[in-house]
Amino acid sequence: MTFPPLREELRGLQPYGAPQLPLDQVPVQLNTNENPYGPSEECADDIAASVRRAATGLNRYPDREHVELRTALAAYLSRDTPHGVSVEQVWAANGSNEVMLQLLQAFGGPGRTALSFAPTYSMYPEYARDTSTAWVQGRREDDFSLDLGLARELVEAERPSVVLLPSPNNPTGTALQPEAVTALCAAVGESGLVVVDEAYIEFRRAGTPSALELLPTHRNLVVTRTMSKAFAGAGLRLGYLAADPAICDAIRVVRLPYHLSSVTQAAALAALRHAPELLGKVDELRGERDRTVGWLRERGLQVADSDANFVLFGTFDDRHAVWQALVDRGVLVREVGPEGWLRVSIGTAGEMMSFKDALSAVVEEKR
Ligand SMILES: *Cc1c(COP(=O)(O)O)cnc(C)c1O
């Protein structure tokens, strides 16, 4: 018997995560899709004041139902759908990754299957494993879109309890066409849930709708969001979902008691009051993204269309060598996605300049 007495299927596994390199060694960090613009001094002061007020009550457990926060999140979501979103439809947790885990705890499990389409978010299979849910991966087309016929066939063959669909997709940046959500909700039926992970939806191009609009027509649809990306709050750890109230009730059964601390609730509420400021750089980042896509294509590289704040580009015979050469020049991107591709997050104009300079030098060298 080896020590520690780990679950058989976890033996020998390494913890997963993007490499975190020190800022003084690699100053341009474009690898985890963060918003490069942090909160202003004024916003930080307001967050600090809210946390200060919460601090005098830290002897008490937080509001388990986080009603004030859910109310504010419902109001924020209601801007994206003519039907509105009610507080009963909203649930929040420590990052949308925790929301995802809670969904699998409640709706996955032994004898059940979770399904997604590769290339997709690399954390999903980990949550399936951790909840003893079987994991099935279909594939996307060469342009990273979904073939709806094939997707429906796979759903009918596998009868998944949970289908995970990021839109825009990570790492490709591809948004789902609304017909895809409708078709998959119908194919899955009431024996499963379709989870549309809209972590990057605020960065979508004009004309791309949110799946929130489809909530009234599909009881089995769940839309997850996060404050980590457009909202400039990755350090806050606040994710949330909108779904049928019965789905929120099911999550209440599996959530840890008092999972959202008073400090998190206070900080998130303050951040939401500053939504216009925190989201204020989204347009600029979208412009920078579109210029980056154009620049990469002008250099003859392949680039996936992006509705997110990152761009997948390639292809390189030895992508690890390109990744390392960029690191050596102080630029950290992500080695992720299909073989040969790299992903760059959209930073400030200055950071993108450094990225372009470094990549030009590296590509020149490799010629
Ligand atoms: C970054 C990201 C998230 C956000 O996770 P948090 O736990 O909210 O920080 C969710 N889904 C995808 C696909 C992501 O890339």
Write a brief structural summary.
The chain is an alpha/beta fold and 367 residues long.
Under CATH, the homologous superfamily of the largest domain reads Type I PLP-dependent aspartate aminotransferase-like (Major domain)
Bound molecules: pyridoxal-5'-phosphate
Low-confidence stretches: none
Radius of gyration: 21 Å
Most strands sheet: 7 strands, mixed
Treating each run of at least 4 consecutive H or I residues as one helix, how many helices?
A: 12
Number of strands: 12
Indicate the proportion of strand residues: 5-15%
Q: Tell me the helix content.
A: 25-40%
- State the separation between the terminal residues, measured CA to CA: 52 Å
Tertiary shape:
globular
CATH class of the largest domain: Alpha Beta
How would you portray this structure in words?
- With 367 residues, the protein is an alpha/beta fold.
- The chain is built from twelve helices and twelve strands.
- It has helices at 41-55, 67-77, 96-107, 124-130, 148-158, 178-188, 245-254, 262-273, 275-278, 282-298, 319-328, 349-366; strands spanning 28-29, 90-93, 113-118, 134-139, 162-166, 193-197, 221-226, 239-242, 302-303, 310-314, 331-332, 342-345.
- A seven-stranded mixed β-sheet has the order 2-8-7-6-5-3-4, sandwiched between helices. The protein has a three-stranded antiparallel β-sheet with strand order 9-10-12, with helices on one face. A two-stranded parallel ribbon has the order 1-11.
- Helix 2 (67-77) runs parallel beside helix 8 (262-273) and helix 3 packs across helix 7.
- 43% of the residues are buried.
- Bound molecules: pyridoxal-5'-phosphate.
- Pyridoxal-5'-phosphate binds next to helix 3.
- Pyridoxal-5'-phosphate is lined by residues 33, 95-97, 121, 166, 170, 197, 199, 226, 228-229, 234, 239.
